[in-house]
Amino acid sequence: MGRSGAFGGSVVLWALLAAHVAMAFEPVSVGIAIGAVSLTGYLSYSDWYCRFTECCREDRPLNASALKLDLEEKLFGQHLATEVILKALTGFRNNKNPKKPLTLSLHGWAGTGKNFVSQIVAENLYPKGLKSNFVHLFVSTLHFPHEQKTKLYQDQLQKWIRGNVSACASSVFIFDEMDKLHPGIIDAIKPFLDYYEQVDGISYRKAIFIFLSNAGGDLITKTTLDFWRAGRKREEIQLKDLEPVLSVGVFNNKHSGLWHSGLIDKNLIDYFIPFLPLEYRHVKMCVRAEMRARGAAVDEDIVTRVADEMTFFPKDEKIFSDKGCKTVQSRLDFH
Ligand SMILES: Nc1ncnc2c1ncn2[C@@H]1O[C@H](COP(=O)(O)OP(=O)(O)OP(=O)(O)O)[C@@H](O)[C@H]1O
Ligand SMILES: *[C@@H]1O[C@H](CO)[C@@H](O)[C@H](O)[C@H]1NC(C)=O
Ligand SMILES: *[C@@H]1O[C@H](CO)[C@@H](O)[C@H](O)[C@H]1NC(C)=O
Ligand SMILES: [Mg+2]
C-alpha cells in the first residue's frame, strides 16, 4: 500500500474506496464511513484505508515516548531491559537504511518478563500486538517439537519467513524457548539475519527478530546476588557487568540453542538483554498490577498473602522468586 497523495474526490478513487470497504464491512458502516470521509474531505487514501484494515506501514515512526511509558509503568525491576530495548528499537526504527535486521536476544530466569516485554514491543509496533498479521511467534516445543524433523522445519521456516517479509518488510519474529530449539533450525534463519542487501530478491533489513531463552539466567542471577550481598543497589547493575558474562556464558551452554549456531561468533545478535530475577517487592507489584487489570481495588492484605505464598531462593536469604511473577495470576484466583 503506497502512501498516495491527498484524497481529492476523484471518481476513480471513490469507486476504489467503496470497493475496498464493501468487501469488509456491511452497508451501514460503509455509508457512515463514506459520509465521514466526505466531511473531512482530504484524508490520504492510505491513512483512511489503514483505519479499517491492518497495514504494514514500515515508514510509520515508532512513538518512543509511548514505548518508554509502557515499559516504565508495566515492567517491574528490569531497568537494564527497559533501557536497552528502548534504545535498540528507537535507533533501529529511526534508521532509514538499516544494514541488517534488528536481532534482540532476551535472557533470564523464569517469569521475569521476557514474553511480557515481547508483547509490549509488538503492541508498540503494531496496535494488534501478537495478533497482528505482521508479528509471528514461534514456540520451539510447540512448532518444532521433533528433532528428527529438523530438515522439514528448516524448509518450512525459511519459506514462512520469506513469505512474511515479502508481504511486510518490517515483520516481527519472536522465537520463544530458544534453549529448546535445535541448532539446525537456527542455522536456517541465519542467512536472514546477516548483512546482506538482499536474499533472493528480498531485503530482510527492516525485520525484527526477538529470541527468548532462560540461557544465562543462572549467571545473571549470580551477578544480581553478588550485588545484593555487597549491599549494592540492584539499579547499580550496569550492562557492562553482565553483557560479556552473558554472551560467553550462553555460548558455552550446550542447551542455549544459540550454541554452535554461529549467531554469536558471527556477531549477528545486536543486543543481549538480561532479565534480573525478581524480588519479593516486585512480586507484590505484579499482584497489584494484576488486581488493577481485573478491575478490583488493590487489597494490601491479599497482596501480602499472595506474595508470601511464592517460594524464594537462595535457601538462606530467600531473596529472589523461584518463578518470578509467573504464577501470580493463578494464585490470585484463590483469594
Ligand atoms: N518484570 C515484570 N514486570 C511486570 N510483570 C511481570 C514481570 N515479569 C513477569 N511478569 C508477569 O508474569 C507473567 C509471566 O511472565 P513472562 O511470561 O513474561 O515470563 P518469562 O520471562 O517469559 O518466563 P519463562 O522463561 O518461564 O518463559 C507476565 O505475563 C506478567 O504478567
Ligand atoms: C506518543 O505517545 C504519547 C504517550 O502515549 C502520546 O501522548 C502522544 O500523542 C503520541 N504521539 C504521537 C505522535 O502519536
Ligand atoms: C506468514 O505467517 C502466517 C502466520 O502468522 C502464516 O499463516 C502465513 O502462511 C505466512 N505467510 C506466508 C506468505 O508465508
Ligand atoms: Mg516465556
In a nutshell, what does this entry contain?
ATP binds at residues 108-115. This protein is α/β, with parallel strands linked by helices and 335 residues long.
Mean pLDDT: 86
CATH topology of the largest domain: Rossmann fold
Strand order of the largest sheet: 2-3-4-1-5
Strand-residue fraction? 5-15%
User: What's the CATH architecture of the largest domain?
Assistant: 3-Layer(aba) Sandwich
Uncertain segments are 1-19, 21-25
Query: What's the number of helices?
Result: 14
Associated small molecules? adenosine-5'-triphosphate, 2-acetamido-2-deoxy-beta-D-glucopyranose, magnesium ion
What's the oligomerization state? Answer: single chain
Shape: globular
Count of folded domains: 2
Query: In which range does the helix fraction lie?
Result: 40-55%
Number of strands: 7
| SS-derived structural category | alpha/beta
The H-and-E topology, N to C, reads as HHHHHEHEHHEHEHHEHHEEH
Protein name: Torsin
Domain Torsin-1A C-terminal: 278-334
Organism: Peromyscus maniculatus bairdii (Prairie deer mouse)
GO cellular component, one term: nuclear membrane
Would you mind describing this structure in some detail?
The chain is α/β, with parallel strands linked by helices and 335 residues long. It has 2 domains: 64-275, 3-Layer(aba) Sandwich (Rossmann fold); 280-333, no CATH class. Helices cover 48% and strands 10% of the residues. It is built from 14 helices and 7 strands. The chain has a 5-stranded parallel sheet. A two-stranded antiparallel ribbon has the order 6-7. The longest helix has 18 residues, at 150-167. It starts with 10 loop residues before the first helix and ends with a helix. The model is unreliable at 1-19 and 21-25 (pLDDT under 50). The structure holds adenosine-5'-triphosphate, 2-acetamido-2-deoxy-beta-D-glucopyranose (NAG) (2 copies) and magnesium ion (MG). Magnesium ion (MG) is lined by residues 114-115, 176, 212. Belongs to the ClpA/ClpB family. Torsin subfamily. Residues 278-334 form the Torsin-1A C-terminal domain. It catalyses: ATP + H2O = ADP + phosphate + H(+). Residues 1-24 form the signal peptide. It comes from Peromyscus maniculatus bairdii.
